[in-house]
Amino acid sequence: MKNAATMEVAAVLGAGTMGHGIAQVCAQAGFQVRLYDVAEEPLARGLAGIERMLGKAVEKGKLPAGEAAAVRARICGVTDLAEACAGCDLVIEAVPEREELKREVLAAAETAAGPEALLATNTSSLPVSRIAEALARPERFLGLHFFNPVPVMVLLEIVTGERTAPATVACARALAARLGKEAIVVRDAPGFASSRLGLALGLEAIRMVEEEVASPADIDRAMELGYRHPMGPLRLTDLVGLDVRLGIAEHLARTLGPRFEPPELLRRMVAEGLLGKKAGRGFYDWD
Predict the structure, then answer these.
(1) Distant-in-sequence, close-in-space partners of 132: CB < 8 Å, separation ≥ 6
(2) Of all helices (H) and strands (E), which one includes residue 23?
(3) Which of 40, 41, 55, 43 is nearest to 12 (CA)?
(4) pLDDT per residue over 29-75, tens digit each?
(5) How sure is the predictor about 287, in pLDDT bands with cuts at 50, 70 and 90?
(6) 128 and 161 Cβ atoms separated by less than 8 Å
(7) Average pLDDT over residues 182-211
(8) Which of 38-42, 143-147, 195-199, 282-286 has the lowest mean pLDDT?
(9) Counting CB atoms within 10 angstroms of each CB, which of 28, 54, 151, 180 has the fewest?
(10) What pLDDT, in 10s, does the model give residues 2-36?
(11) CB atoms within 10 A of CB 238
């Protein structure tokens, strides 16, 4: 395995909200990036998302136009998994939060990438050690949990599996620094650190809406002004996706007990398609 400073080629598997953000920060750190998805349509949406984020960065004066163009030029879209991973130094999986899908994708990626690649999953709650059971070299695998929007959020949660080698963790720490992220290292426990704490606050906020304690805007304002949170828990839930939060809550309720049981309001909103920003409506109207 190369050290983080000499890695050159990265594959990001999944061009959704998290995947295309991860691809962008890797390209900004100098990687040649292959962004993979199963079909042209989701891949095109992911590449368009990168264009929008880079455009906003240029408009706000955070990135020179020439540098933004160079970043975009370092990213190519691919719909063949083996082609995406061949010869890569780094593979980051960001497919939907289904354990069997992640195991299947990562096993195929490991075969295509070869024995020297560092493999990672961007899961926000699934057991890293169980995903690693599908791999021939679990010592080179760990969790790299990025936060949305990836180009803006500084935190990177490094999740160590039962068989993750110390050298792999050290490489991940150096990689985080190269990507401009602040890393924390956590053990592979349900919900890790960030999802578990963030979800506990988010679920209680949803219960407060359900019980008509206050409006979503006022609940969020309480945390933003009273506790200096940059974003309230309900606006954050809209940004993450209510369906994503529901899936994490159901997983943590199974593993940690009833304190993470999803509120009925959350279930109902997901059933009605009120998924947050990506659907146009959640606790807020994003249209």
Answers:
(1) 138, 141, 161, 162, 163, 164
(2) helix 17-28
(3) 43
(4) 999 999 999 999 999 999 999 999 999 999 999 999 999 999 999 99
(5) confident
(6) yes
(7) 95
(8) 195-199
(9) 180
(10) 899 999 999 999 999 899 999 999 999 999 999 99
(11) 25
Instruction: Fill in the amino acid letter for 73.
Output: A
Q: What pTM was estimated for this model as a whole?
A: 0.89
Asked whether residue 212 falls in the same domain as residue 249, the answer is yes
DSSP string computed for 254-273: HHH-GGGPPPHHHHHHHHTT
C-alpha 275/C-alpha 245 separation (Å) is 10
CA distances from 217 to 161, 197, 214, 246 (A): 39, 21, 8, 21
CA distances from 224 to 130, 155, 209, 219 (A): 37, 19, 17, 9
Same domain, 237 and 95: no
The answer to whether residues 189 and 160 touch, using CB atoms and an 8 Å cutoff, is no
Phi/psi of residue 232, nearest 5 degrees: -70, 160
Residues 128 and 137: their CA atoms lie apart, in Å, by 13
Residues 6+ apart with CB under 8 A from 65: 58
- For 131, the token pair is 């995903």
The CATH number assigned to the domain holding 77 equals: 3.40.50.720
Do you know the residue count of the chain? 287
Q: Does the structure show a pLDDT above 90 at 224?
A: yes
Tokens of 218: 């006022």
Radius of gyration of the chain (CA): 19
State the sign of the Cα–Cα–Cα–Cα dihedral 142, 147, 151, 157.
negative
Whether 168 and 227 share a structural domain: no
Quote the tokens at residue 123: 């899961």
Cβ(245)–Cβ(202) under 8 Å?
Answer: yes
